[in-house]
Amino acid sequence: MDYKKENLKTMKKFSKYPYFQPCIETFNQYLERFTANGLSEKQATRKVLNYLKDILRSSQNRVEEVINQRLESGRISDPSQTRKVVAGNNFQTLIAYSIIRNIQIGNIYKNIVVNARYKNHPLLDKYATITVGYNEDSQKPDSDVLIFKDDDFSPIVNFSCKTSLRERAGQTYKWKLLVDLATCTCKHIPISQECPKNIYNLQYNNTRKIFMCFVTADLYNEINNPQINGIFNFFDRAYITKPDNEFLNDNIQCFENVIDFLNEIY
Protein backbone atom coordinates (compact mmCIF):
# COMPACT_ATOMS: atom_id res chain seq x y z
CA MET A 1 0.00 0.00 0.00
CA ASP A 2 1.18 3.51 -0.81
CA TYR A 3 0.36 5.17 2.54
CA LYS A 4 1.18 8.66 1.34
CA LYS A 5 -1.11 8.26 -1.65
CA GLU A 6 -3.98 6.85 0.43
CA ASN A 7 -3.88 9.72 2.92
CA LEU A 8 -3.62 12.27 0.12
CA LYS A 9 -6.71 10.72 -1.48
CA THR A 10 -8.57 11.13 1.82
CA MET A 11 -7.47 14.76 2.11
CA LYS A 12 -8.71 15.49 -1.40
CA LYS A 13 -12.05 13.95 -0.48
CA PHE A 14 -12.26 16.17 2.61
CA SER A 15 -11.52 19.29 0.58
CA LYS A 16 -14.60 18.62 -1.56
CA TYR A 17 -17.01 18.62 1.40
CA PRO A 18 -18.72 22.03 1.14
CA TYR A 19 -19.44 22.30 4.86
CA PHE A 20 -15.88 21.35 5.79
CA GLN A 21 -14.09 23.88 3.60
CA PRO A 22 -14.50 26.67 6.23
CA CYS A 23 -12.80 24.39 8.78
CA ILE A 24 -9.80 23.94 6.47
CA GLU A 25 -9.54 27.70 5.99
CA THR A 26 -9.69 28.32 9.75
CA PHE A 27 -7.21 25.50 10.45
CA ASN A 28 -4.69 27.18 8.14
CA GLN A 29 -5.30 30.56 9.76
CA TYR A 30 -4.41 29.09 13.15
CA LEU A 31 -1.23 27.59 11.71
CA GLU A 32 -0.26 30.97 10.27
CA ARG A 33 -0.90 32.64 13.63
CA PHE A 34 1.27 30.13 15.50
CA THR A 35 4.15 30.36 13.02
CA ALA A 36 3.93 34.17 13.09
CA ASN A 37 4.48 33.92 16.85
CA GLY A 38 7.72 32.01 16.37
CA LEU A 39 6.77 28.33 16.18
CA SER A 40 8.16 26.15 13.43
CA GLU A 41 5.68 24.63 10.99
CA LYS A 42 6.06 21.24 12.67
CA GLN A 43 5.51 22.73 16.13
CA ALA A 44 2.48 24.68 14.94
CA THR A 45 0.91 21.62 13.26
CA ARG A 46 1.20 19.74 16.53
CA LYS A 47 -0.03 22.61 18.72
CA VAL A 48 -3.13 23.21 16.59
CA LEU A 49 -4.49 19.81 17.70
CA ASN A 50 -5.33 21.43 21.03
CA TYR A 51 -7.37 24.14 19.32
CA LEU A 52 -9.78 22.10 17.20
CA LYS A 53 -12.67 23.19 19.42
CA ASP A 54 -11.81 26.83 18.69
CA ILE A 55 -11.43 26.07 14.97
CA LEU A 56 -14.85 24.42 14.94
CA ARG A 57 -16.40 27.44 16.64
CA SER A 58 -14.51 30.03 14.56
CA SER A 59 -15.61 28.44 11.29
CA GLN A 60 -19.27 28.37 12.33
CA ASN A 61 -20.28 31.63 10.62
CA ARG A 62 -18.79 30.52 7.32
CA VAL A 63 -20.50 27.13 7.65
CA GLU A 64 -23.79 28.98 8.23
CA GLU A 65 -23.24 30.90 4.99
CA VAL A 66 -22.82 27.63 3.10
CA ILE A 67 -25.99 26.24 4.69
CA ASN A 68 -27.96 29.34 3.64
CA GLN A 69 -26.57 29.18 0.10
CA ARG A 70 -27.60 25.55 -0.24
CA LEU A 71 -31.01 26.33 1.25
CA GLU A 72 -31.60 29.10 -1.30
CA SER A 73 -30.49 26.83 -4.15
CA GLY A 74 -32.89 24.09 -3.02
CA ARG A 75 -30.15 21.57 -2.21
CA ILE A 76 -31.38 21.30 1.38
CA SER A 77 -34.80 21.90 2.92
CA ASP A 78 -34.21 21.61 6.68
CA PRO A 79 -31.39 23.92 7.85
CA SER A 80 -31.92 23.00 11.52
CA GLN A 81 -31.30 19.31 10.91
CA THR A 82 -28.41 20.13 8.60
CA ARG A 83 -26.70 22.16 11.35
CA LYS A 84 -26.87 19.20 13.76
CA VAL A 85 -25.42 16.76 11.25
CA VAL A 86 -22.75 19.17 10.02
CA ALA A 87 -21.38 19.91 13.50
CA GLY A 88 -20.75 16.24 14.23
CA ASN A 89 -19.45 15.44 10.75
CA ASN A 90 -17.10 18.44 10.74
CA PHE A 91 -15.61 17.44 14.08
CA GLN A 92 -14.99 13.86 12.96
CA THR A 93 -13.45 15.08 9.73
CA LEU A 94 -11.34 17.66 11.56
CA ILE A 95 -9.89 14.95 13.80
CA ALA A 96 -8.84 12.84 10.79
CA TYR A 97 -7.71 15.88 8.80
CA SER A 98 -5.47 17.16 11.60
CA ILE A 99 -3.86 13.74 12.13
CA ILE A 100 -3.06 13.46 8.42
CA ARG A 101 -1.59 16.96 8.42
CA ASN A 102 0.76 15.79 11.20
CA ILE A 103 1.70 12.76 9.12
CA GLN A 104 2.42 14.94 6.11
CA ILE A 105 4.60 17.36 8.10
CA GLY A 106 6.56 14.50 9.70
CA ASN A 107 5.37 14.74 13.31
CA ILE A 108 3.87 11.28 12.91
CA TYR A 109 6.59 9.33 11.13
CA LYS A 110 5.00 5.88 10.94
CA ASN A 111 3.28 4.45 7.84
CA ILE A 112 -0.40 4.51 8.76
CA VAL A 113 -3.71 5.14 7.00
CA VAL A 114 -6.37 7.44 8.41
CA ASN A 115 -10.02 6.88 7.47
CA ALA A 116 -13.07 8.85 8.61
CA ARG A 117 -16.85 8.56 8.43
CA TYR A 118 -16.89 4.84 7.67
CA LYS A 119 -19.75 3.36 9.67
CA ASN A 120 -19.20 -0.18 8.40
CA HIS A 121 -15.50 -0.49 7.72
CA PRO A 122 -14.47 -4.07 6.77
CA LEU A 123 -11.69 -4.01 9.37
CA LEU A 124 -14.27 -3.55 12.13
CA ASP A 125 -16.34 -6.38 10.70
CA LYS A 126 -13.32 -8.67 10.75
CA TYR A 127 -11.50 -7.67 13.93
CA ALA A 128 -13.92 -5.76 16.16
CA THR A 129 -17.13 -7.80 16.07
CA ILE A 130 -18.18 -9.46 19.32
CA THR A 131 -20.80 -12.19 19.18
CA VAL A 132 -23.13 -12.26 22.17
CA GLY A 133 -25.35 -15.16 23.24
CA TYR A 134 -26.08 -18.42 21.52
CA ASN A 135 -28.15 -16.78 18.79
CA GLU A 136 -24.96 -14.92 17.79
CA ASP A 137 -26.13 -11.34 18.05
CA SER A 138 -23.20 -9.05 17.31
CA GLN A 139 -21.80 -5.84 18.74
CA LYS A 140 -19.39 -3.47 16.98
CA PRO A 141 -17.88 -0.25 18.33
CA ASP A 142 -18.99 3.24 17.48
CA SER A 143 -16.43 4.39 14.90
CA ASP A 144 -15.77 7.87 13.52
CA VAL A 145 -12.05 7.76 12.69
CA LEU A 146 -10.02 4.62 12.05
CA ILE A 147 -6.21 4.35 11.88
CA PHE A 148 -4.35 1.24 10.72
CA LYS A 149 -1.50 -0.33 8.78
CA ASP A 150 -1.92 -2.60 5.77
CA ASP A 151 -1.17 -5.91 7.48
CA ASP A 152 -2.88 -8.61 9.54
CA PHE A 153 -1.21 -8.14 12.92
CA SER A 154 -0.58 -4.48 13.85
CA PRO A 155 -2.97 -2.55 16.14
CA ILE A 156 -6.05 -0.73 14.92
CA VAL A 157 -6.90 2.59 16.54
CA ASN A 158 -10.58 3.44 16.62
CA PHE A 159 -11.80 6.90 17.61
CA SER A 160 -15.24 7.89 18.79
CA CYS A 161 -15.45 11.66 18.24
CA LYS A 162 -18.05 13.75 20.09
CA THR A 163 -18.52 17.49 19.98
CA SER A 164 -19.97 17.43 23.48
CA LEU A 165 -20.38 15.04 26.38
CA ARG A 166 -24.13 15.37 26.15
CA GLU A 167 -23.84 12.91 23.30
CA ARG A 168 -24.03 9.26 24.24
CA ALA A 169 -20.52 8.15 25.12
CA GLY A 170 -22.15 5.17 26.82
CA GLN A 171 -22.61 3.26 23.57
CA THR A 172 -18.89 3.65 22.95
CA TYR A 173 -17.55 2.25 26.20
CA LYS A 174 -20.14 -0.56 26.24
CA TRP A 175 -18.21 -2.24 23.44
CA LYS A 176 -14.94 -1.72 25.34
CA LEU A 177 -16.42 -3.41 28.41
CA LEU A 178 -17.56 -6.37 26.31
CA VAL A 179 -14.07 -6.70 24.80
CA ASP A 180 -12.48 -6.67 28.25
CA LEU A 181 -14.85 -9.46 29.29
CA ALA A 182 -14.41 -11.45 26.09
CA THR A 183 -10.59 -11.33 26.30
CA CYS A 184 -10.36 -11.94 30.03
CA THR A 185 -7.97 -14.79 30.90
CA CYS A 186 -9.01 -15.30 34.50
CA LYS A 187 -8.16 -18.85 35.63
CA HIS A 188 -11.73 -19.36 36.95
CA ILE A 189 -13.43 -18.90 33.55
CA PRO A 190 -13.28 -22.60 32.50
CA ILE A 191 -14.78 -23.80 35.77
CA SER A 192 -17.32 -21.08 36.60
CA GLN A 193 -20.60 -20.86 34.73
CA GLU A 194 -21.33 -17.71 36.72
CA CYS A 195 -18.56 -15.81 34.97
CA PRO A 196 -20.10 -13.06 32.74
CA LYS A 197 -17.98 -14.27 29.82
CA ASN A 198 -19.73 -17.65 30.03
CA ILE A 199 -23.18 -16.30 30.90
CA TYR A 200 -23.25 -14.11 27.79
CA ASN A 201 -21.21 -16.52 25.62
CA LEU A 202 -18.92 -13.76 24.40
CA GLN A 203 -16.80 -14.64 21.37
CA TYR A 204 -14.22 -12.28 19.91
CA ASN A 205 -11.41 -12.49 17.35
CA ASN A 206 -8.58 -10.65 19.09
CA THR A 207 -5.81 -11.35 16.57
CA ARG A 208 -5.36 -7.59 16.16
CA LYS A 209 -5.38 -5.25 19.14
CA ILE A 210 -8.11 -2.61 18.95
CA PHE A 211 -7.30 0.58 20.82
CA MET A 212 -10.61 2.21 21.69
CA CYS A 213 -10.08 5.97 21.98
CA PHE A 214 -12.40 8.86 22.72
CA VAL A 215 -11.96 12.49 21.70
CA THR A 216 -14.24 15.40 22.52
CA ALA A 217 -14.44 19.12 21.83
CA ASP A 218 -16.43 19.52 25.08
CA LEU A 219 -18.40 22.42 23.64
CA TYR A 220 -20.43 22.89 26.82
CA ASN A 221 -17.57 22.63 29.35
CA GLU A 222 -18.82 19.44 30.97
CA ILE A 223 -15.44 17.77 31.34
CA ASN A 224 -15.19 18.15 35.13
CA ASN A 225 -18.73 17.00 35.88
CA PRO A 226 -18.29 14.09 38.36
CA GLN A 227 -20.97 12.05 36.58
CA ILE A 228 -19.04 12.35 33.31
CA ASN A 229 -15.49 12.14 34.63
CA GLY A 230 -15.66 8.40 35.27
CA ILE A 231 -16.42 7.38 31.68
CA PHE A 232 -12.90 8.20 30.55
CA ASN A 233 -11.51 5.32 32.60
CA PHE A 234 -13.07 2.86 30.17
CA PHE A 235 -11.07 3.95 27.13
CA ASP A 236 -7.51 3.09 26.13
CA ARG A 237 -6.96 6.80 25.53
CA ALA A 238 -9.23 9.82 26.02
CA TYR A 239 -8.47 13.22 24.50
CA ILE A 240 -9.83 16.74 24.50
CA THR A 241 -9.27 19.37 21.81
CA LYS A 242 -8.49 22.17 24.25
CA PRO A 243 -5.22 23.54 25.67
CA ASP A 244 -4.00 22.43 29.12
CA ASN A 245 -5.11 25.57 30.90
CA GLU A 246 -8.77 25.14 29.94
CA PHE A 247 -9.55 22.01 31.93
CA LEU A 248 -8.54 20.05 35.01
CA ASN A 249 -9.01 16.31 34.60
CA ASP A 250 -6.49 13.53 35.19
CA ASN A 251 -8.36 11.04 33.01
CA ILE A 252 -8.08 12.91 29.73
CA GLN A 253 -5.17 14.34 27.72
CA CYS A 254 -4.73 17.24 25.33
CA PHE A 255 -5.17 15.96 21.79
CA GLU A 256 -1.59 16.77 20.73
CA ASN A 257 -0.52 13.73 22.78
CA VAL A 258 -2.09 11.47 20.17
CA ILE A 259 1.06 12.05 18.08
CA ASP A 260 3.28 10.37 20.68
CA PHE A 261 0.75 7.56 21.14
CA LEU A 262 0.64 6.72 17.41
CA ASN A 263 4.42 6.86 17.04
CA GLU A 264 4.76 4.55 20.06
CA ILE A 265 2.30 1.80 19.10
CA TYR A 266 3.26 1.63 15.41
Automatic annotation (TrEMBL):
InterPro entries in the record: RE_BsaWI
Pfam families the UniProt entry points to: RE_BsaWI
Domain BsaWI restriction endonuclease type: 127-184
UniProt protein name: Type II restriction enzyme
Native organism: Caloranaerobacter azorensis DSM 13643
